[in-house]
Amino acid sequence: MRNIFLLMLLFSLIVACRSKSSIVSDELKNMATSENDFIITFGSCNKHDMENVFWDDILAQNPDAFIWGGDIVYADTDNTSKIQEHYDLQDTVPNYATLKEKVFITGTWDDHDYGLNDGGIEFSAKKGSQQAFLNFMDVPQNDERRQQEGVYSSQMISKPNGLIKIINLDTRYFRTGLIDDKKEGRRYKPNDYGDGTILGKAQWQWLENELKTSNADFNLIVSSIQFLSNEHGFEKWANHPAEVDKMEKLITSSGAKGVLILSGDRHISEFSRKDLKGLSYPLIDFTSSGLTHSYSSYSGEPNQYRVGEVTAIPSFGLIEFDIEKKTATLKIIGDHGVVLQELKQAY
């Protein structure tokens, strides 16, 4: 009996050791997988009182970050207490609360969470609205963003094999006026070249420093409004054409690696791509807009830089980065994780 007991004990120890080795191997394998790639998710245009079916889909991607591209809530008021109430309600959405517990969240605002539809520098409640936004983003009271004008910020996501930098622009606080367009189906037309600004002097200086000093493998510039699509009649960077030239020159001259632009606002999703003189890779503007609602009456609009088709149903954006291969795979994703469109770019 003693010999049988010893044999059984030896057998159990061997099984236990094999089981432990298997678990460790799986853990190491999972760690290696997570270190090989960065996964960034983002989206915009979210009504807190409408169902957002994507929070579980986003969490299922196991992303390194989720980026708000603006219109987090639809407040549209100069009552900053009401704006804060809308943000507080968004925080109570169960699946979003779960995402917030498990995933790093950053981003910027757009007009509806700013408080004024198509609003800019003229909005009288912008200082209070800024504090409500920062509260929602859990920014500490002693953070410098509490004192600066505008919600622009940057964060670095680090892994052993690389760095991703997220640069959140504020295209509202300093943006000067737009010119009404009288043509049917168009809201605005471009300002005269050199008139007005989108970012303002201080933010432009900050952005220049962020790009020129960046050692990241990829740099994501988050703009609530579209940068490359310049033919439609709504809000866009092209309404301030000198600002577009300034941004393109800065991206080209900064030496920053792998610059991509992420945008929202339009209630559609699309890829835009443009070759810039002096830049070794094409500049991509990935628009992901319509987390809870979309441009359902969309019937087409010109965009000379568009790659693929416009997605006019709710969706979110996802980017997979391969640091070693220096590639980014951009995906427009619908409910249940269905990939609606995909674009791969080498850098």
Automatic annotation (TrEMBL):
One of its GO terms (molecular function) is alkaline phosphatase activity. CDD domains: MPP_PhoD. The keyword Nucleotidyltransferase does not apply. Gene3D superfamilies: PhoD-like phosphatase. The keyword Transmembrane helix does not apply. It comes from the Bacteria. Its EC number is 3.1.3.1. It is an enzyme of class 3 (hydrolase). Residues 1-21 form the signal peptide. It holds the Pfam family PhoD. Keywords: Hydrolase, Signal. Residues 86-271 form the PhoD-like phosphatase metallophosphatase domain. This is Alkaline phosphatase D family protein. It comes from Croceitalea rosinachiae. The lineage of its organism: Bacteria, Pseudomonadati, Bacteroidota, Flavobacteriia, Flavobacteriales.
